Q: What sequence folds into this?
């Protein structure tokens, strides 16, 4: 999707925790004709077995707690099974120690997710295990803020 001159409506600044303290980056959210265009740029990812990392919007409103426990579970206002939660996103894919992802979704609006969290997990999402895809520990988190 062509990025035009308009600015993102929301931003999550991503920071790693105790497991992966070198992670940093941003997730930008643009509202586009009933969809949300999300752009993630993440650096400092540690290598893992597959090079894929679970990446989700979570229902919590902060990144505190052991391994970001206050970030809550996947954002799932409609009570659907995984991977049909509103907050389920495609995985991040490692390139060196960075990842870039652009995705368009109609599962939520920016207004729905302001104040919620974006979480990166240390393993891939298998897209079937309930309730979270067996994606492993939470290794990075950011709060979605309106800008």
A:
């Amino acid at each position: 999707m062509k990025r035009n001159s308009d600015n993102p409506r929301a931003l999550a600044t991503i920071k790693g925790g105790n497991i992966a303290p070198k992670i940093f980056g941003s997730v930008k959210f643009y509202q586009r004709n009933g969809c949300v265009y999300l752009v993630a740029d993440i650096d400092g990812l540690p290598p893992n077995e597959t090079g894929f990392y679970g990446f989700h919007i979570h229902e919590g409103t902060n990144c505190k707690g052991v391994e970001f426990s206050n970030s809550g579970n996947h954002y799932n206002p409609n009570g659907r099974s995984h991977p049909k939660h509103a907050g389920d996103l495609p995985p991040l894919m490692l390139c060196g120690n960075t990842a870039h992802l652009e995705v368009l979704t109609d599962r939520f609006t920016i207004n729905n997710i302001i104040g919620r969290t974006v979480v990166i997990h240390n393993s891939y999402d298998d897209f079937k295990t309930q309730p979270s895809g067996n994606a492993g520990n939470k290794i990075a988190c950011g709060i979605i803020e309106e800008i």
